[in-house]
Amino acid sequence: MAILLSLPPHPLNPPQNLNSATTKPISLPAPKPTAFTTISKRHFILKTTSLSIICLTPAYPVAHSSAEPSVPPKPAVSGIANTKSWFQFFGDGFAIRVPPQFEDVMEPEDYTAGLSLYGDKAKPKAFAARFSSPDGSEVLSVVIRPTNQLKITFLEAKDITDLGSLKEAAKIFVPGGANLYSARTLKIKEEEGLRTYYYYEFGRDEQHVALVAAVNSGKAIIAGATAPQSKWDDDGVRLRSAAISLTVL
């Protein structure tokens, strides 16, 4: 999935002033108007495919730790891999691309959770999807939570912006004490129009996390890719790409 950065065009150099003392004005006869004289405007349209990120807002410099990190973090979104050839997992209202060689590590109780009643309530599913690298050190997970559990409201959240701005929602999705390296708003073109996703990248307890969240019909769908900080330089691109591949169906 390619990220398109919108850069302002360079300003054109203004025309140089002509020396009126050495240049004589030339008068040209005005063209005769005709019935077929028209002025047309050309519109340039940037066409994107489904799941192409078309807007990327600047990161908010928010940190949840009381102390500033001793070493300035590297740019969070430094690269995205093409995930079209990866296996695509379809879950309950979402789809996500799984990095090669990652294995499904969902526990049996995760599949049956929500079906059996405990008292008058169903046991919530811990994960909607969960995959890991062969050594188990890198994990890709998806969880689904009712938005009214994340933010007290009497209205059904229909979009991630209903939970607040990118900066405000960081209090929901980024744990306290974490160092927030990057926070971005992603607007993705889907069949029904544009959908807003929030992207956060942060570190905590020697773990590096890339998290993407979206909302649909009162449910928050959250994808997170984690790895030890020591492995992020080598595997961060594919983990970040896996998290960003989250699609709400």
Number of helices, where a helix is a run of at least 4 consecutive DSSP H or I residues:
4
Query: Percent of residues in helical segments?
Result: 10-25%
Outline: globular
Structural class: alpha+beta
Detail the poorly predicted runs: 1-76, 113-120
How far apart are the first and last residues' alpha carbons, in Å?
Answer: 17 Å
Protein name: Photosystem II reaction center PsbP family protein
Organism: Carya illinoinensis
Summarize this, please?
It is built from four helices and 13 strands. It has 249 residues and is α+β, with helices and mostly antiparallel strands. This is Photosystem II reaction center PsbP family protein.
Topology:
Layout: E1 53-56, E2 87-91, E3 94-98, E4 103-104, H1 108-112, E5 117-118, E6 121-122, E7 129-132, E8 139-146, H2 147-150, H3 166-173, E9 179-190, E10 193-204, E11 207-216, E12 219-228, H4 229-244, E13 247-248
Antiparallel strand pairs: 1-9, 2-3, 3-13, 4-7, 5-6, 7-8, 8-12, 9-10, 10-11, 11-12
What does this molecule look like?
With 249 residues, this protein is of the alpha+beta class. The chain contains 4 helices and 13 strands.
Quickly list its features.
single chain, 249 residues, alpha+beta, 8-stranded antiparallel β-sheet, 4 helices, 13 strands, globular, Photosystem II reaction center PsbP family protein
